[in-house]
TrEMBL record:
GO terms for molecular function: 2-dehydro-3-deoxy-D-gluconate 5-dehydrogenase activity. Its EC number is 1.1.1.127. Pfam families: adh_short_C2 (PF13561). InterPro entries: 2-deoxy-D-gluc_3_DH, NAD(P)-bd_dom_sf, Sc_DH/Rdtase_CS, SDR_fam. This is 2-dehydro-3-deoxy-D-gluconate 5-dehydrogenase KduD. The gene is kduD. The keyword Phosphoprotein does not apply. Keywords: Oxidoreductase. It comes from the Bacteria.
Length: 254
């Protein structure tokens, strides 16, 4: 079929976005709603009011789902009523946590928490929601990876390991499901101004070193990720599979 701009429309689609309360997840939720999707906003505390207000402002539609993604063994049970009610066409695995500590002191409980939220829950959600996508022969999964899916980072060993795993899982699922109408891809954001990066933005030296290396000359904003997310969630990306799309103001090219 010849290309037309409707390929970017998400009208009639249902999307689930994890970590929808703040930052990148909030921006992507609003962006998917603006493109026409009904958005299931997943958070772990009942505090999604700001995201809901932003979607209300653009006349979009949403529902909220509260699941603590660090409690991986409870996710399947809590998803059941959601899957009975909705056929989810688009899954954005965005929720993520970071813990900074030198490797020799790194606490085991922090290692496990970061792994549970950043990768173990991503597998469970992708498996449970991906199953329906495969059955229906249509689906888009967009995982939020990181520059630390490629690089080592400093003092964030669990985060780096989890984000390398996100890139690997993206390719593994893409290989299995591309022939069944389900595209699995990832976005690797560069340095974006959110809660996740507050500590390094407040560290004057780190902040300057980081800014020096970004050809765009500025930190990214959450809205900088939205175009890539809508593209990967839409028909326009039907032949894109297993790709990790870097959105970083040029950092990786330097
Ligand atoms: P953020 O504002 O801290 O967003 C993280 C989101 O995940 C929050 O909405 C948070 O909810 C949610 N979350 C945390 N623990 C959860 C849990 N147990 N269950 C359910 N939800 C949970 O930071 P962000 O920068 O937007 O991060 C979004 C994604 O982008 C993450 O995967 C992060 O690794 C990735 N990323 C960010 C950058 C960057 O520069 N900012 C760069 C590369 C990748 P609460 O706030 O309610 O806890």
């Amino acid at each position: 079929m010849a290309f037309n701009m409707d390929f970017f429309s998400l009208k009639g689609k249902t999307a689930l976005v994890t970590g929808a309360r703040t930052g990148i997840g909030q921006a992507i939720s609003v962006g998917l709603a603006a493109a026409g999707a009904h958005v299931l906003l997943l958070g772990h505390r009942d505090n999604l009011g700001e995201t809901k207000a932003k979607i209300d402002d653009i006349g979009g539609t949403y529902e909220t789902i509260l699941i603590d993604l660090s409690d991986v063994s409870s996710i399947r049970e809590q998803l059941k009523p959601v899957l009975e009610k909705h056929s989810i066409d688009i899954l954005v695995n965005n929720a993520g946590v970071i813990h900074r500590e030198p490797a020799v002191d790194y606490k085991e409980q922090e290692w496990l928490r970061v792994m549970d939220v950043n990768i173990n829950s991503v597998f469970v959600l992708s498996q449970e929601i991906g199953r329906g996508m495969v059955e229906r022969g249509f689906g888009k999964i967009v995982n939020i990876a990181s520059l630390l899916s490629f690089q080592g980072g400093l003092f964030v060993p669990a985060y780096t390991a989890s984000k390398h795993a996100v890139a690997g899982l993206t390719k593994a699922l893409a290989n299995e499901w591309a022939g069944q109408g389900v595209q699995v891809n990832a976005i690797a954001p560069g340095y974006i101004e959110t809660n996740n990066t507050e500590a390094i933005r407040n560290d004057k030296n780190r902040n300057e070193t980081i800014l020096d290396r970004i050809p765009a000359g500025r930190w990214g904003e959450s809205d900088d990720l939205v175009g890539a997310a809508v593209f990967l969630a839409s028909k326009a990306s039907d032949y894109v599979s297993g790709h990790v799309l870097v959105v970083d103001g040029g950092w990786m090219g330097r």
